[in-house]
Amino acid sequence: MSRRYLLIFTLLAILLVLLVSCASTTGQLNPQWTQDVFFKNAQEAMDENRYETALFYYEVFLVRYPESHQKVIAAEYERAFINYKMGNYKEATRGYDEIILKYDESPYAMLYHPRFLQLSEIGLVNIEKQKTVNNRLLWRVKEKAWAEENGESLTDDGEESLI
Question: I want to staple 42 with a disulfide (CB 3.0 to 4.6 A). Which of 57, 104, 125, 136 is the partner?
């Protein structure tokens, strides 16, 4: 019988924690918020490195105001950029690609500010650069590990050997 109470108590505690953690974002969401308020709050969250919260605000904006084409493209860019900042490169790439496609195919493309196309293209270049840097670092770490295992000395350019 006490095992059952322990299980019920544990489930209630988990539920309470989930409700409290979700309330921190959605509790601040006012149904009367205008488009500008969403952007202001999302930008404040970005400035404070609360990327998940900013992403949430942009997602809700996109659901509430899909007809606001100029701001939708801005929100989509911000969403892709947040994913880039969080290291979610696949999601960021998908977002940037969708924006570029919209400039090519959307009947509303003439309403979009050209900077989001340019920034999306830059974002894709930066992701490729980041992948290259990560690959180089990974291989450098593997090379150094191999050198240490085999009693070799491996130095980076500009790094003096300690031997």
Answer: 57
Supply φ then ψ for residue 153, to 5 degrees: -110, 130
DSSP character at residue 105: H
Q: Is 39 left (phi over 0), alpha (psi -120 to 50) or beta?
A: alpha
* Domain residue spans of the chain: 29-147
52, 76 Cβ separation under 8 angstroms: no
Residues 6+ apart with CB under 8 A from 37: 30
In the chain, where do the E strands start and end?
Answer: none
Question: What CA–CA distance (Å, rounded) separates 26 from 33?
Answer: 13
pTM for the model: 0.68
Over residues 71-129, the pLDDT tens digits come to: 999 999 999 999 999 999 999 999 999 999 999 999 999 999 999 999 999 999 999 99
Place of tokens 């488009």: 35
Residues 6+ apart with CB under 8 A from 130: 89
Q: What is the CATH number of domain 29-147?
A: 1.25.40
The CA distance from 99 to 122, in Å, is: 12
**d(Cα 14, Cα 8) in Å, to the nearest integer?**
10
